[in-house]
UniProtKB/TrEMBL annotation:
Protein's UniProt name: Membrane-associated progesterone receptor component 2-like
Pfam families to which the protein is assigned, alphabetical: Cyt-b5
Keyword Membrane: yes
Homology family: Belongs to the cytochrome b5 family. MAPR subfamily.
Region (Disordered): 171-191
Keyword Transmembrane attributed: yes
Amino acid sequence: MAEEAKDAVPPSEESLVTSLLTEIFTSPINIFLLGVCVVLIYKIFRPSNGSGAASGPLEPPVPKMKRQDMNLAQLKQYDGTGEHGRVCVAVNGKVFDVTRGKKFYGPGGPYAAFAGHDATRALATFSVNDVKEEYDDLSDLSSMQMDSVREWEMQFTEKYDYIGKFLKSGEQPTEYSDEEDAKDTKSNKED
């Protein structure tokens, strides 16, 4: 028996790899798991070309709003229920047109309470119910909450169109020229 062990030739690395791959790819469970991985990787890395094939029909693009500052009464008109269907939200003193995210911020959406309101406090406290019906100076928020607000503001700035400042009662709006609107449109197209 000792002689048989001496005479046995150890398998080569190549044959070990071949037998291992054969075992892996012939097991039904492994083939199924490989298929699941391929599908998940495809869904993660597939280009989002806006064709709507995976997510259903797309709504027609909404023309960009004219640059304007708004007080709370003006902002409330943009809650998604008006004739124009637009949705605007104020975050940290800035008004954003979030109409592209209407399924989130529009009527029936999970964040519909933000539509036509200043959402700053709600975003700072992570509570959809913390939307105020009057101008909120935010002076009682902690530094951590204000850091969170600034992060939300950056996200809104990257994702949605900036419309103008959110005005306190009695504050005068800025008069924006058509050149500023054109400049904003051009810079958004370059991004």
